[in-house]
Design goal:
Blueprint: H1 2-36, H2 43-54, H3 58-119, H4 121-141
Helix pairs in contact: 2-3, 3-4
């Protein structure tokens, strides 16, 4: 009987600590998301905080606030530039991918034509069927969640 009570108490404490740990990580995650989603202090709020913490004069506070506003404007400009660069890189990547795909298709066609002259049309048709079956097997065996995976 004592063993059962002891085991029950251990289970309750273990479960309690587990639930507490899960709650803490959720709160930290929510706080990080708030910080990323625009919950940052404005230049005015930061200057007011510095005024309160350091006892700034109104002139110092105005200069600090102007500096913070200038820094925020620069940062916003840098973020916009980075987003534009990223968008441009994605467009270039798509174009490059299409160019490489077209080049590969051209090479495959040329190689197939050369092979056909060597092995003949009948064997070439068999080879193309075999190759298509292998490609299908490879696509079907890929994990679903993998990048670029799945049948095309």
């Amino acid at each position: 009987m004592k063993k059962i009570v002891f085991m029950a108490l251990v289970a309750i404490f273990t479960l309690g600590f587990t639930l507490e740990a899960q709650d803490n990580t959720r709160n930290r995650r929510d706080n990080r998301q708030d910080a990323r989603s625009g919950m940052r202090w404005s230049a005015t709020e930061r200057a007011e905080n510095m005024e309160k913490q350091l006892g700034l004069t109104p002139e110092e506070k105005a200069k600090v606030q102007a500096l913070f506003e200038e820094q925020d404007a620069k940062r916003a400009e840098q973020v916009a530039e980075q987003r534009a660069k990223r968008d441009e890189a994605m467009k270039e990547r798509t174009v490059n991918r299409e160019e490489m795909r077209a080049l590969r298709e051209k090479e495959v066609t040329e190689n197939d034509a050369q092979l056909e002259t060597i092995i003949g049309k009948e064997k070439m048709d068999q080879w193309k069927k075999y190759r298509a079956d292998r490609q299908k097997e490879m696509r079907d065996s890929r994990p679903v969640g993998r990048r670029g995976g799945g049948p095309r």
